[in-house]
Design brief:
The structure holds two protein chains of two kinds.
Chain A (H helix, E strand, L loop, with lengths): L3 E3 L4 E4 L4 E7 L6 E7 L6 E6 L3 E5 L2 E6 L4 E6 L8 E8 L10 E3 L3 E6 L1
Parallel strand pairs in A: 2-11
Antiparallel strand pairs in A: 1-3, 3-8, 4-5, 4-9, 6-7, 7-8, 9-10, 9-11
Chain B lengths: L4 E3 L2 E4 L5 E6 L6 E7 L5 E8 L2 E4 L8 E4 L6 E5 L8 E8 L10 E2 L3 E5 L1
Parallel strand pairs in B: 2-11
Antiparallel strand pairs in B: 1-3, 3-8, 4-5, 4-9, 5-6, 7-8, 9-10, 9-11
Classes of the chains: A mainly beta, B mainly beta.
């Protein structure tokens, strides 16, 4: 079992729709969760971070975390063609004494927003 | 403020040769991380520096890889000798806080390494 799992997609949604991206993780003790967006050939760019159960909203983006189910998701409202990219789920599985903060990534979900 | 920079952007070398990748973190960031993405796979952690010290090198694949961060500023990752399976994109990331889990890592553009 992979430590962080995502559906590779592609996930195709029409412009203006809600895109829903999902991620599950294996380490029940994980505390920090991140969504990065990566355009082809570019560096991963942080979109959202979430640490507590529930929803966190930032503009058109909402991250949802359910630690009991080991599940984190990203919702993109009013999807735009410019949102077309690979979305990477990353989980901090570092030393909880604070010594290291390595990220474990999923393979990413390719999102295609159709105009 | 300048972001994380990496050099070179692309490198093509023959099997058995040596390659050195460089990363300049965001100014003032004590944490520096190296990651690698092999084609078709997920981004994988290689190692983590706090200032000039190696905090975690659990992801380094073997002793052909040597990372340094002299003076706690820029870092280099040397692969010697390079093998075909070393091909991929090498990302560097930096973050500000030492310790703590709520720490955002900012990624550089990556170095695409091709070993022929």
């Amino acid at each position: 079992q992979k430590e962080v799992e995502q559906n590779s997609g592609p996930l195709s949604v029409p412009e203006g729709a809600i895109a829903s991206l999902n991620c599950t993780y294996s380490d029940r003790g994980s505390q920090s969760f991140f969504w990065y967006r990566q355009y082809s050939g570019k560096s991963p760019e942080l979109i959202m971070s979430i640490y507590s159960n529930g929803d966190k909203e930032d503009g058109r983006f909402t991250a949802q975390l359910n630690k009991a189910s080991q599940y984190v998701s990203l919702l993109i409202r009013d999807s735009q063609p410019s949102d077309s990219a690979t979305y990477l789920c990353a989980v901090n599985m570092g030393d909880y004494g604070g010594a290291t903060n390595k990220l474990i990534f999923g393979t990413g979900t390719l999102l295609a927003v159709q105009p | 403020e300048a972001g994380v920079t990496q050099f070179p952007s692309h490198s093509v070398i023959e099997k058995g040769q040596t390659v050195t990748l460089r990363c300049d973190p965001i100014s003032g960031h004590d944490n520096l991380y190296w990651y690698r993405r092999v084609m078709g796979k997920e981004i994988k952690f290689l190692l983590h520096f706090v200032k000039e010290s190696k905090q975690d090198e659990s992801g380094m694949p073997n002793n052909r890889f040597l990372a340094e961060r002299t003076g706690g500023t820029y870092s280099t990752l040397k692969v010697q000798p390079a093998e075909l399976e070393d091909s991929g994109v090498y990302f560097c990331a930096s973050s500000q806080r030492i310790g703590g889990l709520a720490d955002t890592q900012y990624f550089g553009p990556g170095t695409r390494l091709t070993v022929l």
